[in-house]
Amino acid sequence: MIELQNLVKRFGSFTAVDNLTLRVPTGQFFGFLGPNGAGKTTTIKMMTGLYEPTEGRCLINGHDIHADPVPAKRSFGYVPDQPYLYEKLTGREFLHFVGGLFEMPVDMVKDRINELMEIFEIGPFIDKRAEEYSQGMRQRIVLSAALIHDPKVLIIDEPIVGLDPRSARLVKDTLKRKTREGLTVFMSTHLLEIVEELCDRIAIIKDGRMIFEEHRETSRSMTGTFNGELEAKFLELTK
Amino acid sequence: MRELVIMFNLKAQGFLKSVFSPSLPSLVKNLSSLCIFGGFAIGLFFLTRGVTTYLLQQAHIGQFLFHRLLSMLLYVFFITVNLGNMIVSYSTLYKSQEVNFLMAMPISHTKIFLIKFVDNFFYSSSTLTLVGFAILLGYGSVFQLSWTFYFFTMFFVLLPFMLIAGILAVMILTALIKVATRIGVRWLLAIIIGGYLAAIYLYFKITNPVQLVHEVMKHYPNVNEYFGYLDPPFVRYLPNHWVTEFLYWSVNGEFARAIPYFTLLFLTMLGLIVLAGMFAHRYYYGAWLAVSDLQAMKGPGEKRIRLRFLEFGRKAFLKPQTDVFIRRDILLFFREPSQWMHLLLMMVLLMIFLISIGTLELKLTQPLMQAVSFLVVFLFNGFLIASIALRFVFPSVSLEGDTFWSVRSSPLSVRKLYWYKFTGAFLLVLIIAELLSVASISMLRNNILLTQVAAASTAFVTLALIGLNLGSGTYFATFKEKNPIRVASSQGASLTFLASMVYLAAISSVLLVPLNSYFDSLIREGVSHTQWVLVPMATIAVLSILVFATSTSVGLRAIKRDL
């Protein structure tokens, strides 16, 4: 479960996130939308402990990410907007490194790597150094790293950027399956068709404030998706 | 020409905005920089003035010999500027994102080369320019020269001298890249390091400062004309010799004899600029493409050494978090040639220093000279620890780089990460520093108490310098910079190094008087009074712990900052 309570982030006189409050219950796939510079990545960075909120709190599975960071961080996986890796380490080495950070035993890490190799089809390049990877390869390694410790919450900033259609399908299917298994997903994206396909609930943020929130089940279109109306709604709200 | 004006204008604006930013933290940072750089320059001024006065007015070595020694120092300075420019220019001219962008623009390759050369020279030589100017002022003040001398020498002698070193560096690098495409990068790096070591060794072998001093002192004071013919012929073609000759004749009021050397220097600089332009027109784009190809060829075809015991997935003997950090850091260190080759080079220099100490036969009878000789070796050890710390510890947090997200978002406390970095660096540097300290001091003087003093002081100096470099390296961390050499030559790094020098100066001033008294009682009474070294030791301990605690507190706050 994710809970943001009156979250504010200011950079000098500029307010990037302004009094944001929302709650994502366990097992929900939450889409976080907004135009460029709306405050999506800033919110995610506060949720993952990379930024300190100016005001307010972020609770991940009941733990305040800033007051009680270690248990909070133990329970989520994070995929950043830019899939940076250690250029001189191989994908496998990076996954072992992340497994170690989550204090997983070596044998368990090995087993998880084997599972993730099948899920994300990273086997052909996992033993090459990251300096040789394309954007899509990096993205798949980072997604594998986020899932290596089998987290309860997944926080994703732009998951599909740079992926070819086949890889994008792999990621979408995996996320769908994981959500059915009880994973809570908080996803920021610009791609509305992905939101329509995957999300149970969406919120739109603009200038750091939440301007729209809707649940699939309460949507007027109510055909199981946001039914193409999302784009028109988004453009109208964010103009 | 218009593109050049636009680019230089943009760069100047960027620089001025970074220096004169209206924010309070920036103002504090710039004022601190000014104080430390200013303090360092003033210190260097008085040091140069003191050494020059001592050598000329007390040791009476004579102006000829003094300028020969100055020439040797300028040679080392030339090599330092040259090597510094060469190391940094690989990143600036061949691997920078800005060059990738400019190469796609309708700008000639020669202009891109020129823009990036100026950028590179400014970046890698600004601190050395300050050093050069402070030394020049200190030297000139002994001879009571006019301000026009300083102005002329700074801009028309010293700057061309440094530019010659810088231009040669980028030209040599371009040629070497062409060679690298044929023989491979590893062999090329080995050849460069070997070449520079050979150049320094041969220069001092041929000019031989010790022999020169012995010979000159036999003929003192009628040596000026006689030894003028003793310069090895090749020395006359070196820019350091021209600068020294210019200075020698200028301070003696014979400007007519100084002008040919200035002309030679200035024309060489102009000639090299023209040559560099032609060279860039002919080879720069090809070399840039070669570097891109070398980058792209990494991997499948390249033979790699595998250190199996370091590989991930092996049984961990430590806690998982510590285990993966150690494996990661060792692998990243050995997979980055600039890291391990630089360390290797430093170790070679350290061995040369130890061998030199071993062959010294100091027959000093004066207590003050005994104390000074001990302090010089002790300070050199401190300088070496400061250099290692600056080069390898200062950039360690910056080198977490863009991938720091993976550590910061993991269940690891950043305090723990900081202490992990500190412990690793402290233990490794302490081993090197203690070996160096004990070996050098015991070789210099067979005195158990002094060796113990040196060993204990070295431990405190290591604590302070590692704390200082890690703390300020965290405070000035630049996660976007991937090149450790550029991180270690940034403004923050220069400030840290100057702060290290101030700390070492404070340590030596604490030690000088008690050591003098200690040697005095040892020489005159044959008694070793331990109390003379216990009080300064306690002072050093307190001072070092203060430096360590302050720096660590700054570092621990900085590592928690927003990423």
Describe the structure.
The complex is a heterodimer of chains A (239) and B (563). Chain A is α/β, with parallel strands linked by helices and 239 residues long. Chain A has eight helices and ten strands. Chain A is 36% helix and 26% strand. In chain A, a hairpin with a 2-residue loop joins β9 (201-206) and β10. In chain A, α3 (91-101) crosses α4 (106-120), α3 runs parallel beside α5 (135-147) and α4 packs across α5 (135-147). Residues 220-224 of chain A have low confidence and may be disordered. Chain B is an all-alpha fold and 563 residues long. In chain B, 81% of the residues lie in helices and 0% in strands. Chain B contains 20 helices and no strands. The longest helix of chain B is centred in the middle third of the chain and has 43 residues, at 255-297. Chain B is globular, with a radius of gyration of 25 Å. Chain B starts with a helix and ends in a 5-residue tail after the last helix. The relative contact order of chain B is 0.08. The A-B interface holds A 12, 45, 48-52, 69-71, 73-74, 76, 78, 80, 82, 84-89, 92-94, 96-106, 109-110, 128-129, 131-132, 145 and B 23, 295, 298-299, 311-316, 319-321, 323-325, 327-328, 331-332, 335-336, 401-403, 405-413, 482, 560, 562-563.
Largest interface: A-B, 43 and 38 residues
Number of helices of chain B: 20
Task: Specify Rg of chain B, calculated over alpha carbons.
Answer: 25 Å
DSSP, total strands of chain B: 0
Quick one: biggest sheet of chain B?
Answer: none
Which structural category fits the helices and strands of chain A? alpha/beta
> Major sheet of chain A: order of its strands?
6-7-8-3-9-10
Q: Helix proportion of residues of chain B, in percent?
A: over 70%
Class by alpha and beta content of chain B = mainly alpha
Q: What low-confidence regions of chain B span 5 or more consecutive residues with pLDDT below 50?
A: none
The dominant shape of chain A is globular
- The rounded distance between the terminal residues' Cα atoms of chain A is 32 Å
**How many beta-strand segments of chain A?**
10
- Mean pLDDT of chain A, nearest integer? 87
Query: Rounded to an integer, what's the Rg of chain A over CA atoms?
Result: 18 Å
Multimerization status:
heterodimer
Into which percentage range does the β-strand content of chain B fall?
under 5%
